[in-house]
Amino acid sequence: ALAGTTAALIGERTGTAWLIGAVLLAVAALAVTAYLHDPKRAQQPGTTTNAALLLCYLLGALSWYGPTELAVSVAVTATLLLYFKPELHGFSHRISAPEMRAILQLAAVAFLLLPLLPDQAYGPWQAINPFRIGLLVVLISGLSLAGYAALKLLDHQHAVAALGLLGGAVSSTATTLAFSRHARAGVVSPPVAALIVALANLTVLLRLALIAAAAAPQLLRVLAPILATALACGAILPLRSWRRLPPQPTTAALEMKNPADLRSAFSFALLFSLVLLITAGANDWLGSAGLFAVAGFSGLTDVDAISLSAMQLHQQNRASAATAIIAICVAYAANLLFKLGAVAIIGGAPMARTVGAAFATVLAGLALGALLWL
Predict the structure, then answer these.
(1) Which residues, 6+ apart, have CB-to-CB distance to 343 below 8 Å?
(2) pLDDT value, residue 241
């Protein structure tokens, strides 16, 4: 670092800009010479040490030219990376190739593709904004990937609550279907499976709040109290069931694909664009009744797409806050009813009764919140 600072000083005073590069090559040559004189190190070269050596020199040069805060920040970051190198190696070894590929694909969409999308409305009713659609796709995929990663890291076989909450962050539908099958197969008891399903579908309320915070912050001021009321009412029965759980954990694993692959992201983009066009047209031709009908139909299989569409209409001043929120509530209610039917068919009547009671309290809280805050 002192060599870099000195080279920068001399180069600036004498007008010889090449001096920094020349001394950098000399430092690199010293590193190479040291390895050649040590056969053991030559057989197992440590590229991290070499990179840190050259970085240290360059940070010294950088500190001379003025941005000392940047130089200090990079130095601290490099030191942290060196210190936590064993932990980082362990973390990287736990990530499989498909998971790393999904992370890189999501990063490519977020940081390479998204900035290229035009932030402008297109199509009939000016309903399609490529940048907004891409941003929301990244948000949904990022939330799912975060939940997936947490499930992998937290050893979810020993945490029923984590299975439900994080399973809902990944996919509440996948969680519902998976544990309905587990209950019928006897892998887990119906009460435990019902608890996980109830928690997963409560997590959808938190997802909707996060989506609204990103897509329609103004709508969140009215939507948040309604969602909070539904969450508080819906958490009563699952919390009581959770406190009565026996100490032994469930042994069932949540089976699902990595949620952040490009195919899932672009499939959601296509679905969201289609729902956005349908809701914009229904709202234009039929008013609020058309939007509610689309919300009930589309919410049977997916809550995010229709909810985002309703938020988009509100942001474009084509739907009131009350209309958009009621559409979101209708979609969520339709989704719960669809899942309850799936639980009854796949998981059996005992599980369906428990899940039905939990869903009923959520819907009661949703209706109460709408009456209080709309």
Answers:
(1) 176, 180, 194, 197, 351, 352, 355
(2) 87
CA-nearest of 121, 123, 145 to 132 is 121
Distance CA 140, CA 258 (A): 13
Distance, in Å, from the CA atom of 258 to the CA atom of 271, rounded to the nearest integer, reads: 19
Which of 208, 211, 240 minimizes the C-alpha distance to 227?
208
**DSSP state letters, 176-198:** HHHHHHHHHHTSS-HHHHHHHHH
DSSP state for residue 122 in the 8-state scheme: B
What's the pTM value of the predicted model, to 2 decimals?
0.62
Q: How far is CA 193 from the centre of its chain?
A: 24
Q: Name the β-bridge partners of 128.
A: 122
Task: With beta carbons less than 8 A apart as the criterion, state whether 359 and 335 touch.
Answer: no
- pLDDT at 332 (0 to 100): 94
Helix-, strand-, coil-residue percentages of the chain, each rounded to 5: 80, 0, 15
Distance CA 52, CA 48 (A): 6
Looking up tokens 């996980």, which residue turns up?
Answer: 196
- Both tokens of 22, joined, read 């020349």
Regions of the chain short of the pLDDT cut 50: 156-157, 250-251
180 Cβ contact list (under 8 Å, min separation 6) = 193, 197, 342, 343, 346, 347, 351
Q: Which of 275, 277, 362, 280 is nearest to 323 (CA)?
A: 280
